[in-house]
Amino acid sequence: MAEMPDLELIHPLKLFDIAKNEKRFLYTCAPMVRYSKLAFRQTVYAYGTDLCWTPMILAKEFNRNRFARDSDFTISTNGPQPPTIVQFGANVPQELARASSLVAPFSNGVDLNCGCPQSWACSDTLGAALMEKRELVRDMVVETREQLRRDGWGVDKEKDIDNPKGRSVSVKIRVHKDLRKTIDFITTVLGPDQDRHIDWLTIHPRTRSTPSSTPINLEALEILTSTFGDRVPLLLSGDVFALNALPFTSPLLTTTPTFTTSSTPPPPTAATSNPLSHIPNLAGLMSARALLANPALYAGHDACPWPAVETFLSNVARCPLPFKLVQHHLSEMCGPGMGPNKSALLTKQQRARVMGCGNMVDLVDFLDGNVWSDRATL
Ligand SMILES: Cc1cc2nc3c(=O)[nH]c(=O)nc-3n(C[C@H](O)[C@H](O)[C@H](O)COP(=O)(O)O)c2cc1C
């Protein structure tokens, strides 16, 4: 990392601004442990994603171990380098500040994970356990901003929007069962309106114990966006499955991309046939599971197109991933997606063949011999 030349990096708030001027949501790719690695980030970036998160990286390990740094954080120096937010898991202000200082030359901003519900994380007061520690979270972001300022980075949010050294500090949260606690949490972490402590906030409107199969809490989202949406840019994480089937309305939904569909349009889902909540104060969308299945989601494809798979494989050739991960990505991209369009690029049997391949050469041979050759003769 130390030998890299200075990168020209855009301030993430500038991307929020561009999207707003285009009267659309900011499109972002969620942090996903194991999956939101460089080759995948490059793929979603090629298909309209504005801003990408790395998987959560444990700040303490990152600070102490060079191998953790090399394996957890990869960027591209000569290929497409998507605007990237490095997400950390941390519970000590100096640890988050130190790790942020290490990645600041190579990333557009840093983010603190206050949403991971896994028991190992919560028992270490990481992830969602931090939703009970609002002063600590505030101290962590304040310390990080101060450290980055001491290092010479521009951390004055909108004032540094055109500064090539401008960097962001943000937080991703879940909600509490009692929403008043979430309001207290955000109020503390945000700090004063004239000089808020964070650039933006990502809200995943589920509690720590809500399964991901339960729909997001739209009422909580409505309350939080109307309370805080004019004080800090807000992103929604959760159930962003298809841009033409979001379970709410917003003025920023008038300019969604034209949809490319490989089959007849799906019937309205339960969500779209119900009266929809109106969420006017939301700046952007963050997608995890739906982007895994369809990296072209934000480019207006309602199911994964083959060229996205090809783009992913050519990114993997340049920025390798462990083979098991490549297989998992392919089975996600080639199966039915999260949105209403349930068409799939490969049949269940073909996906099982993909999972049965022993290495990259077998995998490419299988696709070449069975799938891509069929496409060529169509
Ligand atoms: C495989 C996987 C890994 C995840 N890893 C992280 C992570 O590292 N950090 C984080 O804040 N959230 C993580 N999440 C949660 C997602 O970022 C997101 O908030 C959640 O999946 C809801 O979004 P979705 O409905 O679009 O999937 C992960 C989710 C998945 C499915």
TrEMBL record:
<dbReference type="GO" id="GO:0050660">
    <property type="term" value="F:flavin adenine dinucleotide binding"/>
</dbReference>
<keyword id="KW-0288">FMN</keyword>
<dbReference type="InterPro" id="IPR035587">
    <property type="entry name" value="DUS-like_FMN-bd"/>
</dbReference>
<dbReference type="GO" id="GO:0006397">
    <property type="term" value="P:mRNA processing"/>
</dbReference>
<dbReference type="InterPro" id="IPR013785">
    <property type="entry name" value="Aldolase_TIM"/>
</dbReference>
<feature type="compositionally biased region" description="Low complexity">
    <location>
        <begin position="254"/>
        <end position="263"/>
    </location>
</feature>
<feature type="region of interest" description="Disordered">
    <location>
        <begin position="254"/>
        <end position="275"/>
    </location>
</feature>
<dbReference type="GO" id="GO:0017150">
    <property type="term" value="F:tRNA dihydrouridine synthase activity"/>
</dbReference>
<keyword id="KW-0507">mRNA processing</keyword>
<keyword id="KW-0285">Flavoprotein</keyword>
<dbReference type="Pfam" id="PF01207">
    <property type="entry name" value="Dus"/>
</dbReference>
<keyword id="KW-0819">tRNA processing</keyword>
<dbReference type="InterPro" id="IPR018517">
    <property type="entry name" value="tRNA_hU_synthase_CS"/>
</dbReference>
<protein>
    <submittedName>
        <fullName>tRNA-dihydrouridine synthase</fullName>
    </submittedName>
</protein>
<feature type="domain" description="DUS-like FMN-binding">
    <location>
        <begin position="29"/>
        <end position="244"/>
    </location>
</feature>
<comment type="function">
    <text>Catalyzes the synthesis of dihydrouridine, a modified base found in the D-loop of most tRNAs. Specifically modifies U47 in cytoplasmic tRNAs. Catalyzes the synthesis of dihydrouridine in some mRNAs, thereby affecting their translation.</text>
</comment>
<keyword id="KW-0560">Oxidoreductase</keyword>
